[in-house]
From TrEMBL, chains A, B:
GO terms for molecular function: DNA binding. This is TetR/AcrR family transcriptional regulator. Residues 26-45 bind DNA. It comes from Actinomadura craniellae. Residues 3-63 form the HTH tetR-type domain. InterPro entries: Homeodomain-like_sf (IPR009057), HTH_TetR (IPR001647), Tet_transcr_reg_TetR-rel_C_sf (IPR036271), YxaF_TetR_C (IPR054156).
Amino acid sequence: MAGASRERIEVVAAELLARHGYHGLGLKALSQAAGLPYGSIYHHFPGGKEEIAVAAITGCGERLGGMIRGLPDQAVVATGTMFEAMVWQLSDSDWGRGCPIGTPALDGATESAAVREAVAGAFAAMTSALAERLAALGVPGDRADHLATTIIAAYEGATMLARAQRSPAPLQAAGEAMTALVRAALPETP
Amino acid sequence: MAGASRERIEVVAAELLARHGYHGLGLKALSQAAGLPYGSIYHHFPGGKEEIAVAAITGCGERLGGMIRGLPDQAVVATGTMFEAMVWQLSDSDWGRGCPIGTPALDGATESAAVREAVAGAFAAMTSALAERLAALGVPGDRADHLATTIIAAYEGATMLARAQRSPAPLQAAGEAMTALVRAALPETP
DNA sequence: CCCTCGCTAGATCGATCGTTCCAGGGGCGT
DNA sequence: ACGCCCCTGGAACGATCGATCTAGCGAGGG
């Protein structure tokens, strides 16, 4: 396959980004984890580390946006279910693997403008996908945007707290609060 | 003064942590920014980079916890005011200086267990301070804990989104939502 | 059969990082 | 005035990082 190696680099890079952030993304570790030689990386990504990070972050943003669009209505209303998925991901990885967008968002933003823009685009993709779902459920336009932004922010922040404390509690607390916020914003609660 | 240099290192380290995270905290840049020679750093902090980061993070946690405890009641109810302070800090620093606790939280957690514990402690200090204030305002015990955790999570996450998008909008949206959440949790809204 | 080209494979370079080490300076008590 | 000790000042080291370069493998068309 033509794009198989390139795609594998992207997937492994997202994993490493989720664990160690942008600085911690080592190209030597990346090649080893992907089972590819060092030179192959620069063949597929001539732009080096920055291009790899941008591709991985952008790809994750599109994937997560599509996932939100494919969610059943009840999962959008009970927003807390999104947060429980991160509880699984964290406890499965010994609280190491966070969000592949949020983790490099902070330590890569000041380093590379391209990474910052990729992160902003990925967040925008997730937020707009969620806002569309909320609007379709009856939340008025700008309220839906604000609510979606708040939910994504709480999601990233709760992931940060959960990793630091090695506990699912922050994700559970924020998830329940977001569910309550969505229910309050809906025209009527069934 | 005895602890003057040590304290200056701590303050400058917090600034660099807030901008670049744990990996990005360069000891050469730190000594230069603090106006101290390279060797002084290792004199005051024999543990090197890790000890400096732990001290800076722990200090910031205590300081922010104390700040929350000193807030007037109306500022605790209108939680969004906390978020506006970060809008100022971000726009003043060209969207570079984030939270000195949240920024190293993600990229330092997998690197150093001591840093992760310091971050967890700082978050716990902020959360418990806020929970105490909410409880004093009439929010029942465990609800206050959950609410405080949600607010801190939304604060950190909104800061992350605001830095990436170079816009105050996420902090404003999350701030308003958290204010609404607090008002809904209070026994009566004056 | 051979030539071409996408891809693998890894040695290597310069820069930078955290760390260690030692030499000099200045205020304090005696 | 003298010696002690906390602190400053910076050189030097080994390790590691991202990036560059060149050589070789191997399938597919002439």
